[in-house]
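Standup notes
- DV: blocked on the single-chain target, sequence here:
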Amino acid sequence: MTEPLKTSSPVISARSLNIGYRDETIVSDINFTLDRHQSLALIGTNGSGKSTLLKTLVGLLPAVSGSLEVFGQNPGLVTRRIAYLSQFQSSGFILPLRAVDVVTMGRYANAGLTGRLSGEDQDIVQTSMKRMGVEKLRDKTLRSLSSGQQQRVYIAQTLARQADLLILDEPTTGLDAAAREIYQQMLRDELCRGASIVVATHDIQEAMDCSLTMLLARKVVAVGRGEKVVTPEALLQTFGITITLGKKPGITVIEREHSHDHPCDD
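- DV (later): unblocked, structure below
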């Protein structure tokens, strides 16, 4: 079981953070905090720095400079509290892994020195598959599934970690409308559970539904509440085009009934 979150300090704190690789800074001067029950959406074109920031948050890439704390520590020291869904998954498995085998991998970090999974672990795997609607595919080999089904299996694996922080890179790739609804409900449930979420997405509406939105274009164009920072001007800087939705110029935001900050009682 993971340790309880401390509500007195942010889950993520970035101050004057520069990210990139040893010989190249991709995005500089990133500043934001993310608390429990909150979600952050990263939007931008390919190459804008979204995946680089996610990998830095996970601890796969060191920060070039500046300050980054996750649960008050260096990201590399708290990997067991983080579940990371990368944009590209390996499909070249030597063994014909079943869907249930892939989801079960999400519990390996909790198996301890013996490497044995408990009955509780098995229940978590089953519940995670059910939440993503893939429980009936449990005995199917992964490579026999469609791309959308495979993506739901990988999301179920991420859920099985029961992590305090979910880092998701383009998680809706390949998902149809019905699967996207399942995914959106999963996000709401995870926030209610007390987790925090950072997601890279091309879906502007999904970004607007998050607590915070960061627009990236190899720089931070804007970061803050979606209704304040997702403007035609900011989208022009981010994507190079002006996006218009609805009959009138500008962006039409569909108001949702749930709150962005606290979708449920703690």
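- Follow-up: The CA atoms of residues 217 and 238 lie 5 Å apart.
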